[in-house]
Write a structure and sequence with these properties.
With 435 residues, this protein is mainly α. Helix content is 46%, strand content 10%.
């Protein structure tokens, strides 16, 4: 039997980062079996629809590389199918009409038992707590219960991968399959993701829409790698895996039953690892795309069009950034004149007269033979630090703040080489005018 999985979000908002894991697991199951992965938009709750949410879901999945089959199913366009199936149950005495809606007759005897593919566990739910439920609302749109059962049968979904919130409703869904005389679709209920405080994952934990992670400068490969591990440990024990490698190792029976904790710090670390694995050319391309297309509109600036400068900067920042967005604050002084403030010099907690020391720095810079060379530059200012009785680290930090207005930059001398001697001198003079 061909493996056919689906991701079936409701377009009631932007695709949440937690939903990415559901889509990923479904994609991995299909990819491993050389099957098919589908996207189904469950938009039957017309009152909760958010305009543009379906577009965000589609674009985010494509950005992540979770390629689905070309035909996207919109449940709102399948009303007639659901109505016909609901009416069939009424004719057979398995459902009834009340208040303009169609209700399914639940059997409350015994219990419902299934093997949940997630963790390969047996679930038992007493039927006595179940009640008759609506399958077709008075507005003629189906409820989730009816729509997903009909669609997963007609689309031959195998298996259905979804969240644990649907476990209490399993008797409803199993009885619907049986009422239609269909084979029950296998289910896998993957654990809910929690925040560090063990409450349901939310924005206060650093989780948000997946598209916002894109804007924040995260790489799709890193997001998928991290999200895969929220509920699953690869048998190989590897921490960095490509999607292809994940697909080879992934099995729903290995999915953990306990709820994982989302850790934004761990995700940033993993993103940094992916950045360092990239070639300089790959990182340059990613940063160029980020600066021109993805980041906030204020960054769409012609100053970043100097490709030669970008090429020089990339190797300097590669070991220092965790996200593509870190590139901007770290290197902005190389593209624009810094805004100097006295506070910036105070933050560094210099233990010497700043103005007097900067004047001596300027004198030395004006006497060093051009073009400046790294060894001579370092020797000159190590000697000056010794003469003035200050630490070498504070000497170079003073120069750093003077040329950048920042406490953290790429390597100092390499930054000076990109700025050039004249611009460096001008900036030290400007810093002097401030302090």
């Amino acid at each position: 039997m061909e493996v056919r999985t689906r991701f079936a979000p409701s377009p009631t908002g932007l695709l949440h980062i937690g939903g990415v894991r559901t889509a990923l697991y479904a994609y991995l199951v299909a990819k491993k079996a050389k099957g098919k992965f589908f996207l189904r938009i469950e938009d039957t709750d017309q009152n909760r629809l958010v305009e543009g949410a379906d577009k965000d879901i589609i674009e985010t999945l494509k950005w992540l590389g979770l390629q689905f089959e070309d035909e996207i199913t919109y449940q709102s366009k399948r009303q007639k199918i659901y109505q016909e199936h609901a009416e069939k149950l009424v004719k057979e005495g398995k459902a009834y009409e009340k208040d303009g809606a169609i209700w399914f007759k639940i059997n409350t005897a015994g219990k419902t038992v299934i093997t949940d593919l997630a963790g390969n566990r047996q679930l038992e739910i007493p039927n006595q707590d179940q009640k008759d439920f609506v399958i077709l609302k008075s507005d003629k749109y189906p409820t989730y219960h009816l729509a997903h059962v009909v669609d997963d049968h007609l689309m031959a979904t195998n298996p259905v991968i979804r969240g644990p919130e649907w476990i209490p409703s399993i008797p409803k869904h199993i009885q619907l399959f049986e009422a239609f005389g269909w084979e029950v679709t296998p289910y896998a209920h993957i654990p809910v993701i929690l925040g560090p405080d063990k409450s349901k994952l939310s924005k206060r934990h650093g989780a948000k829409a997946a598209s916002e992670f894109r804007t924040d400068g995260f790489l799709p490969e890193a997001i998928l790698n991290y999200m895969a591990f929220l509920g699953w440990t690869p048998p190989s024990g590897k921490e960095i895996l490509s999607v292809s490698e994940m697909a080879e190792e992934f099995d729903l029976k290995d999915v953990h039953v306990s709820s994982p904790v989302f850790d934004i710090v761990k995700l940033e670390w993993m993103n940094g690892e992916y950045i360092r694995k990239m070639s300089d050319e790959e990182l340059l391309k990613s940063i160029e795309e980020y600066l021109s297309d993805i980041s906030d509109s204020q960054l769409k600036n012609t100053k970043y069009e100097d490709r030669e400068k970008l090429i020089k900067i990339i190797p300097l920042v590669k070991e220092r950034i965790k996200k593509l967005s870190d590139f901007v604050p770290l290197t902005d002084f190389l593209f624009d004149n810094p805004e100097y403030e006295k506070d910036q010099f105070q933050i560094s907690n210099f233990k010497f007269p700043i103005s007097n020391t900067l004047n001596k720095v300027l004198d030395k810079l004006e006497t060093i033979e051009k073009p400046w060379k790294a060894d001579e530059f370092e020797t000159t200012f190590r000697k000056l630090a010794e003469e003035l009785g200050i630490s070498v680290s504070q000497m170079f930090q003073l120069i750093r703040v003077a040329i950048s207005g920042q406490n953290v930059t790429p390597p100092l001398f390499e930054s000076i080489q990109i700025l050039g001697e004249e611009e460096t001198l001008n900036r030290v003079k400007k810093a002097l005018s401030v302090v």
